[in-house]
Amino acid sequence: MRLFKILCQMNLKKINNGLLVFNIPNILAFIRLLIAPVMFWIILNPQVFTDMGWHISWNYYIATLLFVIASTTDFFDGYVARELGQITIVGEILDPLADKMLTLAAFLGLMMSGAASAWAIYIIIVRELFITGLRTLSVSEGINVSASMAGKVKTVAQMIAIGFLLMHWPLADVLLWIAVALTVYSGVEYLVGFAKAYKGKL
User: Fold this and answer.
1) Is 31 exposed, middle or buried (0-12, 13-18, 19+ CB in 10 A)?
2) Max alpha carbon distance in the chain (Å)?
3) Residues 27-41 pLDDT 10s
4) Cβ–Cβ under 8 Å, residues 37 and 97
5) What CATH number should be reported for the domain whose range is 2-201?
């Protein structure tokens, strides 16, 4: 572990104010950003695989694999950031942005391919974009709004729903609406937390 820490620290690039941009957690977040559009394209282009003689469902299988890989990087970037002390302002913005890009790409692809309820996806998209903007504002203003348990549960619920929808498994629609409910609840909770923190700063 000590050797791992030394090797990671050798690959840090410092910019103004001591912000660490080129570190392992941020690289993992960039990987998620790259996977998101590829996964989106694969979901909407099953003919690419049928033209090669594969079953039409292969686009969903491959999209699921990419989603699992990307979701795994989300776990590791948080772990590495804590273990190596590489928690940065850039990372605090980039990590949730990459998460949102990944989930929104999956949800949009599923909606456009007819595999998910449009209303459910609209609600999730509006909430995610609004809270992402609010979180970016809070970081830029130096307002600390800690991630709540509801937000973490929401993220897990969304990932499970996406997995079920991609694989066309039973209860996928039920899990999607559970994710919607948790998404709205955690969004309201974050908004209240931001309002209190902002008021306290005045």
Assistant:
1) middle
2) 63
3) 888 899 999 999 999
4) no
5) 1.20.120
